[in-house]
């Protein structure tokens, strides 16, 4: 992943000052290799604290690690920099909190109210666990939800597709939102004229571009353990709980 992709993933969570610093960094890569944090702050009329915060939002421990990234020729991040740290989890949690505080979901609540049935589609094992939590929470507030795999060849999907009606509502949960299998599924769902809401970990992805409404959880880098990969999914649960309890609050205010 290059620096432009990192900035793009986090852009909606950056403050105006952080965006200005990010744009300078993206346009002065060679200069950054030898630039001190003090000089960078002067050139961007910002502060060292703002630069450190930006570095952490991009997935680095601080400016020194960000600077090291450019020493590798702006190619892939060295393996030691791809580990999810405690600090990055805290930063991503704060990003998600900021997103929740600044996002209105009234249109989504109305769709939930008006829907005849609600389905939640998942793209992997972790997402299946997340949809099970959605099922549990929605059941407690009187809105039964059925989860199914995002696999058009599965028996569950074929049965679901046959009984799907225009007034039904579909949530699709995907980590990246770029699963190519989703393209075929979205093409099929468009024939049914149903409303679709995505929940993904990236702000710019194939899925979010093709749905009616979109939810986001701040994404984290994988932590590599030998041939295995450990992914943090806690922020998806935060967004799911905010959605369900927000809907419950919406109903109580009516």
Automatic annotation (TrEMBL):
Keywords: DNA-binding, Transcription, Transcription regulation. It comes from the Bacteria. Residues 108-250 form the SIS domain. GO terms for biological process: carbohydrate derivative metabolic process. Residues 1-77 form the HTH rpiR-type domain. GO terms for molecular function: carbohydrate derivative binding; DNA binding; DNA-binding transcription factor activity. It holds the Pfam family SIS. The keyword Aminoacyl-tRNA synthetase does not apply. InterPro entries: Homeodomain-like_sf (IPR009057), HTH_RpiR (IPR000281), RpiR-like (IPR047640), RpiR-like_SIS (IPR035472), SIS_dom (IPR001347), SIS_dom_sf (IPR046348), WH-like_DNA-bd_sf (IPR036388). This is HTH-type transcriptional regulator GlvR. The gene is glvR_3.
């Amino acid at each position: 992943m290059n620096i432009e992709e990192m900035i793009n993933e986090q852009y909606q969570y950056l403050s105006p000052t952080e965006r200005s610093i990010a744009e300078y960094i993206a346009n002065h890569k060679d200069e950054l290799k030898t630039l001190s944090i003090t000089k960078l702050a002067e050139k961007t009329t910002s502060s060292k604290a703002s630069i450190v915060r930006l570095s952490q939002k991009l997935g680095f421990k601080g400016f020194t690690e960000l600077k090291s990234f450019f020493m590798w020729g702006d190619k892939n991040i060295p393996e030691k920099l791809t580990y999810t740290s405690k600090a990055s989890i805290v930063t991503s949690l704060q990003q998600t909190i900021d997103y929740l505080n600044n996002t209105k979901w009234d249109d989504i609540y109305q769709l939930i109210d008006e829907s005849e049935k609600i389905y939640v589609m998942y793209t992997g094992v972790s997402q299946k666990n997340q949809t099970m939590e959605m099922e549990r929470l929605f059941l407690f507030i009187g809105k039964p939800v059925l989860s199914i795999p995002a696999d058009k060849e599965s028996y569950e999907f074929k049965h679901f597709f046959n009984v799907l009606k225009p007034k039904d509502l579909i949530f699709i949960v995907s980590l990246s939102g770029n699963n190519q299998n989703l393209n075929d599924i979205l093409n099929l769902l468009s024939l049914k004229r149903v409303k679709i809401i995505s929940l993904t970990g990236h702000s710019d992805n194939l899925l979010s571009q093709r749905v009616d409404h979109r939810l986001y959880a701040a994404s984290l880098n994988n932590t590599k353990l030998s041939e295995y990969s450990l992914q943090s999914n806690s922020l998806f649960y935060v967004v799911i709980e905010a959605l369900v309890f927000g809907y419950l609050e919406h109903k109580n205010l009516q």
